[in-house]
Amino acid sequence: MVKFSIIIPIYNVERYLETCVNSILTQTYSDYEVILVDDGSPDRCGELCDHYAESDSRVKVVHKVNGGLSSARNAGLDIAMGEYVIFVDSDDYWDDTMALEHIQKNLAESNADLLVFPAKRFYEDENRFTNILNLEVERDKIRNENISQAVGYLLQNNIYRAAAWNKVVKKSIVDVHNMRFKVGYLSEDMDWCGDLLLYCSKFDFYENPFYVYRQQRKGSITSGKAEKLVSDKIYMCQKGYKKGINLADKNKSKSLLSYYAYEYAVTLGVSSAVKDKDTLREVRNLKVLLDYDICNKVKQVNRMKKVIGYELTRKALCLFVKIKR
Q1: Per the database record, which ranges form the Glycosyltransferase 2-like domain (predicted)?
Q2: Which listed residue, of 54, 112, 175, 196, carries a Cα 20 to 30 Å from 153's Cα?
Q3: 0.90 surpassed by pTM
Q4: In a 3-state reduction of DSSP, which class is residue 99?
Q5: Domains defined for the chain, CATH in brackets
Q6: 152: helix, strand or coil
Q7: pLDDT tens-digit profile of 157-187?
Q8: Residue 166 to residues 70, 119, 200, 323: CA-CA distances in angstroms?
Q9: Facing residues of 86 across strands?
Q10: Torsion of CA 220, 169, 159, 110, to 10 degrees
Q11: Are the CB atoms for 253 and 247 separated by under 8 Å?
Q12: Phi and psi torsions of 201, nearest 5°
């Protein structure tokens, strides 16, 4: 068994693939496998994947009919042999060759089920980087043996988000609970990361934002699908809310609902893309989630809602997101 299985789903990223894969293969720590999942890519990605497998024994390749990001990630999970799994989106990359080495040292100390790390956004058109997490993280609070306190700290400070690519997860957790990504949704990370909060009991953090998240590249999977993205996010929030309120463990219930509260607040900010009245009604019906405001940002949105009402709050958030972009 290798220490890490690094799964890279690939579709239509010929321009970026070498940067991504090379940033993994040049890591100073070498006990890992790289699983390249060619999701029926129409460009030369499949050929490039085979070249990597021929030149490096750590690389495995899966060629499959196009099924989307979730399907590709699941195909990687099906053959992963590592103690831990890590996902990397194929248009992103790591900018620190010692990242895995440091992560391995952290995990050797903590034996965590899940380790979170920060990232930076890269705006390609402007050649500009910004850190996603601007916070001095207290790692001891995340490694706290009191699970509810550890998760509370992660959520309160917006450290734990619906992204599969900034997490290192024990493969045994994934296997025991048969965790797979839901196919056909643009918000595939939300449900999966929510379930991790329920199944993991030890957490850790690595502070260096080595993961470079390429922001809104042309031809990306989510580009031009804003309305479906909002609709899918609301479906996931509805599902998460029902799961959360029915949990017998009140601490886990509070944690899960607080996690979805943040995702709901984010969804409000992009809801201007929705024209369908039924979908807008579903968005409004979930406003109860804002009452689970462990996260400081959710707390601010909830206060605004109580002062100026739901609809004005939604419009204000949409305007804020538009200006910020």
Answers
A1: 5-152
A2: 175
A3: yes
A4: helix
A5: 4-214 (3.90.550.10), 226-324 (no CATH)
A6: helix
A7: 999 999 999 999 999 999 999 999 999 998 8
A8: 16, 7, 16, 27
A9: 6, 168
A10: -150
A11: yes
A12: -120, -5
